[in-house]
Amino acid sequence: MHIRLLLFFTLSLICGSGVTYGNTISYLHKDIAFTDISSPQHQWSPFSKHIYEGFDNGVYWFKIECLASDEDQILTIPESHITKAKLYLDNIEIHKQDLSRYVTFKIPSSAKKETYYLWVDCMFEARIPISLIGEDEHYHDHEQFDIIIIGIYLGIVLCILLINLFSFFSFGNIIYIQYIFMVIGMSVNAFYKDGLPVLFMGFNDHLELLLNSILAISAVFFTNSYLRLDGEQAFLRRAAIGVVAMAVVLNITYQITGSFLIFTIVEVLHLVTLDINWIIGVLRWKKSWEAKLFTLAYGFPLIMAHDYYISPHFGIILFNLPLYFYKIGSIFEMILFSWAIMYQAKKIAKENISINQKLMDYASQLKELNKDSDNKELGIQELVNTYNFTLKEIAILKDVGLGKSNKNIASEHFISENTVKYHIKNILHKFEVKNKKEAMDKFLGKQEASFSTAES
Q: For residue 346, which of 134, 177, 170 has the smallest C-alpha distance?
């Protein structure tokens, strides 16, 4: 059994879904009635591997000439977008198999050659893989292997979700919730492509875009939090927000109209959003190890996503790899990011403890320095004359040194928190420093210098 599963895994990687076992298949891209299908005027084209024609969708007919066989065969179309299909033999329609992930028909054994006609209506992109294999061993082995892979994947995803949820309650960092939604976005895409909605919730042609939007929206928030973007790459950050907002509006339009063109535009916008986030990581490559890890972990499944969600719409074959590769890439990303977020959270917690201690020390030093009124006046005078500080900026700088939060400072000065942030930004600019700690170091240095001058 294990050997057969291994063989089918290898076969899936090499041959994809075009297994026909000696049967001849040809196709006709024309919306005609079944009664006209056998007309000699139609020119049938040989079907080699699968149809991959992008926007050239609509109705396709397939003529399947099955050799005599003493084994029942299974004809399946392993594509989640294909839901409308009919199979005919001698003017009789053969019903689909129940409880199947994809459109599936059973072709009974026959002592003679039989010709079947398969009608397929492509509502989305024209991507039609066809598999015709023996039922007794091959089909069930193949399904068993796929179910094992799906189970392993979903089990790993569940573990990742629980780890991040537990970490959120432990550390209280919102980035864990943001990444939970990102993991959900990645996994539900694979859930959809595996044809599982048919089994668990009934198929909905409008479902996929709603699922994909989870990933695009959560990725914007996660990228901003994980890379701790603060002013840098502001244009790209705004661009990502703008693109994903446009995708949401068009997604609503698609839910109303069902237009495949709008569907494709929304898919492109989703991937453009993910691309922009990745570009931000590339641009910050040299600034932190988080950016390096983000670029590598985020990049591999992103490449696979282009292969699965964009190239088929335009009839472009990039890699045409099985869904296993997307799952492997997403698992790699999930494990790497989960570890990185936990490490980053612990690091930030340690930094916060250190900063709080520094602020307490600063508060103590400021109280001592402010005991001398002459020294206080000298320090203020230098800040005004040398650095062009306003009295409001000096007051806020001292409040920062006393460890007060932006909210408390805003309340005491009867201004908004955004105004406090604006003053702090000006303080950092005038002192030519990067953060509050460096600003307080410089401020204390000026105060101590003024104190020495006053003493002399």
A: 170
Burial class (CB in 10 A: 0-12, 13-18, 19+), 433: middle
Asked if residue 20 has pLDDT above 60, the reply is: no
CB atoms within 10 A of CB 170: 11
Residue 95 DSSP class: P
The answer to whether 110 and 163 are in contact (CB under 8 A) is: no
Q: Nearest CA to 321 among 333, 300, 301, 304? A: 304
Please tell me which residue, 340 or 121, carries the higher pLDDT value. 121
Question: What is the C-alpha to C-alpha distance for residues 79 and 102, in angstroms, rounded to an integer?
Answer: 7
The residue whose two tokens read 């919306």 is 31
Distances (CA, A) of 58 to 28, 120, 360: 11, 8, 71
Count Cβ atoms below 10 Å from residue 308 Cβ, excluding itself.
Answer: 19
CA-CA distance, 397 to 19, in Å (whole number)? 72
Residues 311/264, Cβ–Cβ less than 8 Å: no
Instruction: Give per-residue pLDDT as tens, 395-448.
Output: 888 888 777 888 888 777 767 777 888 888 888 888 888 888 787 777 776 655
Q: What is the pLDDT of residue 17?
A: 45
Contacts of the segment 197-202: beta carbons below 8 A, 24+ positions apart: 197/80, 198/100, 198/101, 198/102, 199/99, 199/101
- pLDDT, tens only, 369-381: 555 444 444 466 6
User: How many Cα neighbours within 13 Å face the side chain of 125?
Assistant: 23
pLDDT tens across 90-130, in order?
Answer: 888 998 888 888 899 999 888 888 899 999 999 888 999 98
User: How crowded is residue 174: how many other Cβ atoms within 10 Å of its Cβ?
Assistant: 11
Displacement of CA 259 from its chain's centroid (Å) = 23
| Inter-residue long-range contacts of 424-427, CB under 8 Å, 24+ positions, other chains counted | 424/396, 424/400, 426/393, 427/389, 427/393, 427/396, 427/397
pLDDT at 175 over 90: no
Whether 178 contacts 225, CB under 8 Å = yes
The token duo for 162 is: 């629980």
Q: Is the pLDDT of residue 312 over 90?
A: no
* Residue that the structure tokens 């005038």 belong to: 430
How does DSSP classify residue 103?
E
| Cα angle value 440/352/427 (rounded, 5°) | 25
Rounded CA gap, 397 and 406, in Å? 11
